[in-house]
Amino acid sequence: MAFNEDSSGSGHDEPWIQWFCGLKGHEMFCEVERSYIEDGFNLYGLRACVSNFSDCLDLILDRIGPDDSDDSHLTQSACTLYGLIHARYIITAHGLDAMYNKYAAKEFGTCPLAQCQGQPVLPVGLKDEMGADTVKIFCPKCQCVYHPPPIRSRSSSHHGAGAAGVDGAAFGTTFPHLFLMTFSNLVPDPLPPNSAYVPRVFGFRVHMSARQRNTPAGTVAAAPDTNNNPKANNSKSRVSMRKSSSSAVAAAKKEAAPTDAAAAAKNSPPNKAPNAKNDDGSAAPSIKSETADTSKPTAAKLSSNIARNNNNKTGGSNKRRSDGEESGPKKDGFLVDSSAVKRRKRQDG
User: Fold this and answer.
1) What pLDDT is stored for residue 120 in this prediction?
2) Distance separating the N- and C-terminal Cα atoms of the chain
3) Which residues contact 32 (CB under 8 A, 6 or more apart)?
4) Can you tell me the distance from the alpha carbon of 317 to that of 341, in angstroms, rounded to the nearest whole number?
5) Does residue 4 register a pLDDT over 90?
6) Cα dist. 37→41, 53, 94, 157, 230 in Å?
7) What SS3 state is found at 18?
8) pLDDT tens-place string over residues 136-160
9) Is 253 helix (H, G, I), strand (E, B) or coil?
10) How far apart are CA 163 and CA 25, in angstroms?
């Protein structure tokens, strides 16, 4: 708790609870009802958390005077005990009503975010254990947690430096959310999606690459972040797909090349060298390639072409036999035009 020897309870005439809530930085505390503290059921389990529990309870309930509690350690323990009691009280019906009045008066402060436009905040603790962390403020509009800003003290002669010394366990992790569930009419509208601040230079938005650190000479600069650029992602994926497909085709060709060569060597007949010899010592005839030279016309092709031409001239007088060979008079193995034979006979006759 934000308690020091200068804030000692000696010398004050007001009740201890009012004195405690009026200390510098304790503006977020509300006054717990005396009847709530006197009920032993509400204090179950707190005896093990505070030393001199009975003396601290008597000091809070003003059963002992201020002059009898000059011990600063006792006062510090009483402040810790009151914080634990306060965390339980503010989630009751009477405690929520007491905190409602403070929230309406903006005694907890306002949200430091400019987009929230002075939205009142609520105190919250990040831990329920004493000494773990200090109190924070929760904004119901932006749903964020902030450090408490400086708050003006209730005393006109003091300006509070905020609740930086107040333990977060005095408010707990449940209070702000239960408060908004109880008073649902106080829940503000959330921030619009386009309310985020956009950095600009001369009216132009700052690109993501401008936030990257300059890399020293000789090092490779990091690629710009294109998570928010779908076009860049699509082009990048296309390039990677092309690279993977081309590499796969090249690998397939490389694997298929030796296989095709082996198959060709297996099917082709072995050619002997020009100077090779047989087993008896005679020269072996060289075997020429069986691949025909298609650039030179063969006799079969010439005969078929001549027969086709003769057949066209005679109107199909030369008929093809069933075995595929054309019938008709031949000379030197070639078909003779029947019209030419008749014409020569007439001349001779």
Assistant:
1) 95
2) 148
3) 17, 82, 85, 86, 89, 95
4) 13
5) no
6) 9, 13, 13, 31, 62
7) helix
8) 999 999 999 999 866 554 443 333 3
9) helix
10) 5
Q: Round to whole Å and give the CA distance between 155 and 318.
A: 133
Cα three-residue angle 136-12-87, rounded to 5 degrees: 30
Which residues have a Cβ under 8 Å from the Cβ of 161 and sit 6 or more positions away? 24, 25, 150
As a whole-number percent, the residues of the chain with pLDDT over 90 amount to 38
Helix (H, G, I), strand (E, B) or coil at 320: strand
Contact 35, 90 (CB under 8 A): no
pLDDT tier at 61, thresholds 50, 70, 90: very high
Measured on CA atoms in the order 280, 282, 283, 287, is the torsion positive or negative? negative
Q: What is the pLDDT of residue 215?
A: 58
Q: Residue holding tokens 């209730």? A: 154
pLDDT digits (tens, 9 = 90+) for 179-228: 999 999 999 999 998 888 889 999 999 988 887 876 555 555 555 554 55
Q: What pTM did the predictor assign?
A: 0.57
- Side-by-side strand order, sheet with 144-146: 122-124, 136-139, 144-146
The amino acid at 67: D
Q: How far apart are CA 200 and CA 194, in angstroms?
A: 15
Residue 79 sits at the vertex; the CA angle it makes with 24 and 169, to the nearest 5 degrees, is 90
Contacts of 57 (CB under 8 A, 6+ apart): 37, 43, 63, 81
Give dist(CA 263, CA 265) in Å, integer: 5
Other C-beta atoms closer than 10 Å to the C-beta of 9 total 21
**Cα separation values, 280 from 277, 283, 305, Å:** 8, 9, 47
Burial of residue 226, with CB atoms counted within 10 A of its CB: 0-12 exposed, 13-18 middle, 19 or more buried: middle
